[in-house]
């Protein structure tokens, strides 16, 4: 089974689970996180199944750039002047859904290091 077929994000992409979409195109979908860690917490996911950033290859370069540009677009659309983008790659890094996703987090002061 591919990453998109066996995760909650795959179910969202197939329309089996509703989401509050913020942006959608042929390459990705952005939606509000159901467990927000800040006033603005969105996720940008590719439609192409990539389990984690560590599995992306040279052929994914344009898609990865697109995801970051969409993350910035969503942040501005949500009224943010500054925000954090996070990509967790692997369980020890905090990745819980193994379908690549970019977190867009903002709307309050964010501390560093994050955890």
Question: How would you describe this structure to a colleague?
Answer:
The chain has about 120 residues and is of the alpha+beta class. The protein contains two helices and five strands, in the order αβββαββ. A hairpin with a 3-residue loop joins β1 (about 20-25) and β2 (about 30). The longest helix has 17 residues, at about 60-75. The relative contact order is 0.22. The model has no long low-confidence stretch (mean pLDDT about 95).
Question: What is the CATH C-level name?
Answer: Alpha Beta
Principal-axes geometry comes out as globular
Structural class: alpha+beta
Largest sheet: 5 strands, antiparallel
Q: What's the CATH architecture name?
A: 2-Layer Sandwich
Structure summary:
The protein has helices at 8-13, 61-77, and strands at 21-24, 28-32, 40-46, 84-86, 102-106.
Lay out the secondary structure.
Elements: H1 8-13, E1 21-24, E2 28-32, E3 40-46, H2 61-77, E4 84-86, E5 102-106
Antiparallel strand pairs: 1-2, 2-3, 3-5, 4-5
Observed structural traits:
about 120 residues; alpha+beta; HIT family, subunit A; 5-stranded antiparallel β-sheet; about 20% strand
């Amino acid at each position: 089974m591919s990453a998109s077929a066996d995760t909650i994000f795959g179910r969202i992409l197939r329309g089996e689970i509703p989401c509050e979409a913020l942006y959608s195109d042929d390459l990705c979908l952005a939606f509000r996180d159901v467990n927000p860690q800040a006033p603005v917490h969105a996720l940008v996911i590719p439609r192409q199944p990539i389990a984690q950033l560590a599995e992306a290859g040279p052929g994914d370069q344009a898609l990865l750039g697109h995801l970051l540009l969409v993350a910035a677009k969503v942040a501005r659309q949500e009224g943010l002047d500054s925000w954090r983008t996070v990509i967790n790659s692997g369980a020890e890094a905090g990745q819980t859904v193994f379908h690549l996703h970019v977190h867009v987090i903002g709307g309050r002061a964010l501390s560093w290091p994050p955890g």
